[in-house]
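Section 5.1 Outputs to date
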Amino acid sequence: MVTDILRNSGIQFRKARFLKPPSGTYAVYTDDIETLGGDKLVAVYHHQITIELYESTPDDNAEQAIEQAISDTGTQWEKQDRFWIQDVQRYQVIYEFDYYEKRRL
């Protein structure tokens, strides 16, 4: 789901990190998973998604693209305000959302 969201946003992205970050705006994401189920059957996966958007200059269009792509799925999300990371000389905006996936056995 998260790869579809980011693909639909049109922003370059990778899972966890870029080995060589692009010069423009890009995103990285993590997908923490908790399994649920009963009677020794794991059938439900709870995904906790974090998308980190990195911007060399404030990029309102990129933020709107991610927000629209997440909202288009009907998923509720949280956003942390943009802040400056001195070490990497980038602005960062963090998005977080959860979703459940049921797997058929």
